[in-house]
Amino acid sequence: METTTKPARIFVSYSHEDSLWFDADNRRCLIPWLINSLARYNCEWWFDRRGLEAGDVFERRIRDEIEQADIAILLVSQAFLSSTFIRTVELPVIKERTARNELIALPILLEPCLWSKDEFLNSRQMMPGKPTPLVNYVDSEKEWSNVRFQILEEIVGKVEKVHASRKPVPIRPPKPAPPVDPTRIPPPPPPIPWYRRLLIPGILIFLVLTLAIAVPLLLKFTRTASAPQRPTAGELRVFGASRMDFVYVPAGAFTMGSDVRARQFIFSEYPPHKVYLDAYWIGKYEVTNRQFDQFIDASGYPGARRWAAQYKPGIGQEELPVCGISWDDAAAYCRWMGGRLPTEAEWEKAARSTDARTYPWGNDWNIVYTQPRCTAANLADRNTRFTWSDSRVDDGFKGTAPVGSFPQGASPYGVMDMAGNAQEWCADWFEDGYYSHSLAKNPTGPAAGEYRVVRGGSCNSGRDHLASSARGIADKVEMWDTGFRVVIDAAK
Ligand SMILES: [Ca+2]
Ligand SMILES: [Ca+2]
User: Fold this and answer.
1) Looking at the 3D structure of the chain, how many domains does it have?
2) What does pTM read for this prediction?
């Protein structure tokens, strides 16, 4: 019998002030590196990401996640120790479950702080091996690399322990069909009279003859009628159950990728290369909460649990981009709309068109410094408090903004919010180096992978992530700055 093992669930407890350890383009990048390095070990990660508001729903969700976790990684810092939420919500549940041997707690010391006063943390010592804060290692590439591998080794050991403690779950074979009771087999039907036997072939011959005459006439008429209506680049139409605006991107080649090698971004967008795409329609805006809510109501789709628990219609969130939904949820919405997620190539062409520009509006970054308000993109501006937040920009939003709020950021086809606001799921699996061997016509990404591509950066991103050729990745985790838009093939 075939068996499978449940993934080991890893919960990360941390203070939002330590978000830079999650940032892929920061020197202190730890968590994304661990997620990437553990990709083959059958684990599922959960951490709340930036942007979730505190509240009852949030608290319940965190408790729920810790209850289901096998391993809890605690990123210990002064902010961690001072956080009321961590002290009163997260740590008590982690401690209880650890005491019952249901959870393995792995504290990692980020910076010098009074961790040893906490009995629970003290009894576990600080990874890796000795209580030296990670900030002491980050300045030396060699030492930082060594210490990250020590942490990885420690976590791999625990993940293997979790898997070893589990009995593999048998995959149930399909139920055999019930045996047929010979006494219940119905008697054979009475013979059909000759005139009824001729009736059906007669009707079929009539139908075939009618279609043979009518179809060519109809096709000729349709071609004549539709010829003058071929859409032009950037033309707007409304499609699908959500009655959503789409813009037309005509067939043709564009430059994908770039030769920028110094971008603070971990994945390669090199080399720039010509890609030909068939024509398609792409959502003018990111899909909104209101539109996603219509989908849940109309289809009874059972997924997107986290989003459903968080979204409250009627309090002004309707026109914000739907975020906190998984790639599968986004793909399900697209199917309901009669479309699909954009490929990475379609997304990039819709953002930068055919002149290899850097941003949807052109090559000049300085327009984000327009005073008094930036109207080009919603990014990590002065309303946010990340280490990479640009204090010279005021876009008016700390989190996501209603879709279409940044008219100066429209792409040449008129597609909105392609830089920032919500970063966006694409259809493709991610492969670093894919551009060196991808198809020149309608590429759809590698056949398989661990992560999906996300594009455009978000309201939590800095300049490098907002470039139209910058490539991001995400796994199945629902992130509160990640949404999507829909593509419909032009043939439809
Ligand atoms: Ca902003
Ligand atoms: Ca966006």
Assistant:
1) 2
2) 0.58
